[in-house]
Structures are given as structure tokens and as C-alpha cells.
Amino acid sequence: GINPDRIKVIYNGIFKEELYNNLSDKYEIKNLANCKYLLSVSGLDKNKNQDGLLKAFSEFKHKYRDFDIKLVDQ
């Protein structure tokens, strides 16, 4: 029962320009345009389960050793 003119779709994602241009001094991202990567945008809060993400990614890399993929945290 909501008027469709009042609905806006907000897609998940990130602008590539932000990923490449807004790098901090601590982190450097190179050549992501030419490789496969898993992008995590969840943040570093305790409730975001970063330990679980790292464990799952580590298990994936161990199981699929020939699959070249990087983990990027935004």
C-alpha cells in the first residue's frame, strides 16, 4: 500500500574511485582491477564477527589452494 514514487532502491556496493583514491597511509591496495577479491564492508566492530570472516577465508584458501583470491576489508 505504499506509493511507488516514495520508494528508492539503494544498491549494495562501492564506487571504484573511492576504493582506489581514498587509501589511508596504513593500507595500500594494488591491482584489484585485475584480480579476484572478496570485499568485506562490515567494519571492525566486535559484533561484525571479523574473526569468523578470517577463519572462513582461511579455510576457503586452504581447501581451494589454486583459487587466487584476496580478502579486502573496506
Helix content: 25-40%
Mean pLDDT: 78
Rg for CA atoms: 17 Å
Multimerization status: single chain
Q: Total strand count, please?
A: 2
Order of helices and strands: HEHE
| Strand order in the sheet with the most strands | 1-2
Gap between N and C termini, in Å?
Answer: 37 Å
Which blocks of ≥5 consecutive residues have pLDDT under 50? Answer: none
**Major beta sheet summary:** 2 strands, parallel
Strand content: 5-15%
What general form does the structure show? elongated
Total of helices: 2
- Find the structural class using helix and strand composition: alpha+beta
Mind explaining what this structure looks like?
- The chain is an alpha+beta fold.
- The protein has two helices and two strands, in the order H-E-H-E.
- The protein has a two-stranded parallel sheet.
- Helix 2 links the parallel strand 1 (about 35-40) and strand 2.
- It starts with 15 loop residues before the first helix and ends with a strand.
Summary keywords:
74 residues; alpha+beta; two-stranded parallel sheet; 2 helices; 2 strands; 14% strand
Fold blueprint:
Layout (H helix, E strand, L loop, with lengths): L15 H6 L14 E5 L9 H14 L5 E5 L1
Parallel strand pairs: 1-2
Summarize this structure briefly.
By secondary structure, the chain is an alpha+beta fold.
